[in-house]
Design goal:
about 280 residues, 9 helices, Serine Threonine Protein Phosphatase 5, Tetratricopeptide repeat, mainly alpha
C-alpha cells in the first residue's frame, strides 16, 4: 500500500485586523503582522512576529503555536520541533495537544526521523484516538520504517556476500599465484641441480689443485736448510752421508776380519815350530 503524507494541520490564532490600533497591545500588533506575513507566504517574517508576540506575553501560547507552524513552513525544523514540544507542554486541552503532536510528527517525518515521528503520532492518538489524519500518517511512517529496515538488511546481506566473494577471489588468486610459483620452481629444478653438480665438481677440482700446491710447497727446502735438505732421507733412497757412514762401517769390519785371520795364521805357525822343536 502506498501512502501519501497528509498536509500538516495548522492552527492559527487570528486577531481581527479592524480593531482600533491604539487599543491593541504590543503582542497583538506583532500577532497581526505575523498573520499577514503568513498569509502572504513570508514565513520567515511571520515566525519572527509570532516569536516577538510570545516574548511579550508568555501566557499567549497561541503565538508560540503559530511560530512553530511558520518555522515548519520556513524549513527551520529545529525551531519548529522546539516550539511544538513547548506548546504541547502548556496545554490541558487534549484536542489542541493532539494537533501539536501531529504537527511534531510531521516535522520528524520531514527529516526522515521515522522512529521519532512514530512516537509523536502515537502521542497525538493518545490525546485524540479519532484523528484519522494522524492515524494515516502513523501507518505511512511505520510502512516507511519497515521498508527502510528491509533495505538495510538487504544491504548488509549484499555486503557480506560481496565480502565473501572477494575473499574467495583473493584465495583463488593466491592459490593460482602459488601454483605458478611451484611450477616455476619445478621447471628450474633440473637445471639448478645440474648447475649445483657442475659447481660442486669445480669446487672439487679447485680443492685438489690447492692440495697439490700445498704438497709442492712443503717439498721445497726452506732458506738456510740447504745442507739439511741434502742429508734428508727420501723414501726409497739414501743420503750421501748415510752411504759414507755405511762404507766406513764395512771397511772397518773388513779390517777387523783381516787382522783376525792374520793372528790365526801366526798362531798356527808357532804351534808347528813347537812340535818340530
Amino acid at each position: 500500500m502506498i501512502f501519501n503524507l497528509k498536509h500538516i494541520t495548522l492552527f492559527l490564532c487570528f486577531v481581527t485586523a479592524f480593531s482600533d490600533v491604539q487599543g491593541q497591545t504590543k503582542e497583538k500588533l506583532d500577532l497581526n503582522k505575523g498573520v499577514d506575513a503568513y498569509n502572504k507566504g513570508d514565513y520567515g517574517t511571520a515566525q519572527e512576529k509570532f516569536e516577538k508576540a510570545y516574548e511579550t506575553n508568555n501566557s499567549y501560547n497561541g503565538a508560540l503555536y503559530n511560530a512553530a507552524n511558520s518555522a515548519y513552513r520556513n524549513g527551520d525544523f529545529e525551531k519548529a520541533t522546539e516550539y511544538y514540544e513547548q506548546y504541547a507542554g502548556t496545554l490541558d486541552n487534549k484536542n489542541d495537544k493532539a494537533k501539536a503532536y501531529h504537527n511534531l510528527g510531521n516535522v520528524y517525518l520531514k527529516q526522515d526521523k521515522l522512529k521519532e515521528s512514530i512516537d509523536a503520532y502515537k502521542n497525538a492518538l493518545r490525546n485524540n484516538p479519532n484523528d484519522e489524519d494522524t492515524r494515516y500518517n502513523l501507518s505511512y511512517a511505520l510502512s516507511k520504517l519497515k521498508k527502510q529496515q528491509q533495505q538495510q538488511d538487504k544491504d548488509k546481506k549484499d555486503d557480506n556476500e560481496n565480502k565473501d566473494k572477494k575473499d574467495e577471489e583473493n584465495k583463488d588468486k593466491k592459490d593460482e599465484n602459488q601454483e605458478k610459483e611451484d611450477k616455476k620452481d619445478g621447471d628450474k629444478s633440473d637445471e639448478e641441480k645440474e648447475g649445483d653438480k657442475e659447481e660442486k665438481e669445480g669446487d672439487g677440482d679447485k680443492e685438489e689443485e690447492k692440495k697439490n700446491e700445498e704438497e709442492k710447497e712443503s717439498d721445497k727446502p726452506k732458506p738456510g736448510d740447504k745442507d739439511k735438505g741434502e742429508e734428508k732421507e727420501i723414501e726409497g733412497k739414501m743420503s750421501k752421508g748415510q752411504i759414507k757412514k755405511d762404507l766406513d762401517a764395512v771397511n772397518e769390519d773388513e779390517k777387523n776380519i783381516l787382522l783376525k785371520i792374520a793372528k790365526q795364521k801366526g798362531k798356527k805357525k808357532g804351534d808347528n815350530n813347537t812340535k818340530d822343536w
